[in-house]
Design brief:
The structure is a single chain. With 219 residues, this protein is mostly beta strands. The chain has one helix at 2-20; strands at 32-47, 57-75, 78-95, 100-119, 124-143, 146-168, 173-179, 182-191, 195-204, 211-218. It has an eight-stranded antiparallel barrel with strand order 1-2-3-4-5-6-7-10. The protein is elongated and about 65 Å long. The protein starts with a helix and ends with a strand.
Length: 219
């Protein structure tokens, strides 16, 4: 619902700008842009089942992600670039029967892209990005029923497109948003050097809860 409201607001703003000016959103050719996004997430939930036979439980997670972005305009409103990302976090679970589970993870990603901007007024543009995302994840987990540390290494490749909007904040700075994605995912994982798994799927989650914001600055 929140995502739909944001999209509706952007579309209304674009209509207003388009009616009041003949100028169009433009990223000039042969310009460098630099920016990215910072993501900080907290999650805390408690479950108290009505049946006494089922234990109460609590789940917590915290993560921080840093995602730099650099691009070069090979033509007006057309960027070639690369994004990278590093994130780390912690997850904890416990219940009233004194079972505890904890995991720590780190991820690293690289994502080359091509991004086209379609002006919707002087300050707003719809952008469509195509590219690939290569991600590596490392995770260590423990629980109080065993002294062993379970390690898990996972890799994934995504190839697809991502829509979004960009809004001009000043002459050299604009805000951008990515709204979901559509494409092909291939994932592999290995746990403690023993258990291996592979899967692939086609995902389509446009205009859902996958909403990210960032800033880009003209150099």
């Amino acid at each position: 619902m929140k995502t739909n409201l944001i999209i509706a607001l952007l579309l209304v703003c674009s209509t207003v700008f388009a009616q009041n000016t003949d100028e169009k959103f433009k990223i000039l050719k042969n310009k460098w842009v630099l920016g990215g996004s910072l993501n900080l997430n907290f999650y805390d939930s408690e479950q108290k089942p009505l049946r006494d036979q089922i234990a109460d439980s609590e789940h917590k997670s915290t993560s921080l992600g840093i995602n730099p972005d650099i691009g070069y305009s090979v033509n007006n409103n057309l960027l070639l670039g690369v994004k990278s990302g590093f994130s780390f976090g912690n997850q904890e679970s416990l219940n009233s029967q004194e079972y505890t589970y904890e995991s720590n993870f780190e991820t690293l990603s690289v994502a080359p892209y091509i991004r086209q901007y379609f002006p919707m007024g002087s300050k707003l543009a719809f952008n469509l990005e195509g590219g690939a995302i290569f991600t590596k994840r490392w995770e260590d987990s423990t629980n109080n029923s065993s002294d062993d540390i379970l390690t898990r290494d996972a890799s994934s490749v995504f190839v697809g497109i991502t829509p979004g909007f960009s809004f001009v904040l000043s002459e050299k700075v604009f805000l951008y948003s990515n709204l979901g994605s559509m494409g092909y995912n291939y994932n592999t994982s290995e746990s403690s050097g023993v258990e291996k798994s592979k899967n692939n799927l086609f995902s389509f989650n446009l205009f859902t809860t996958n909403l990210n914001f960032g800033l880009l600055v003209f150099l």
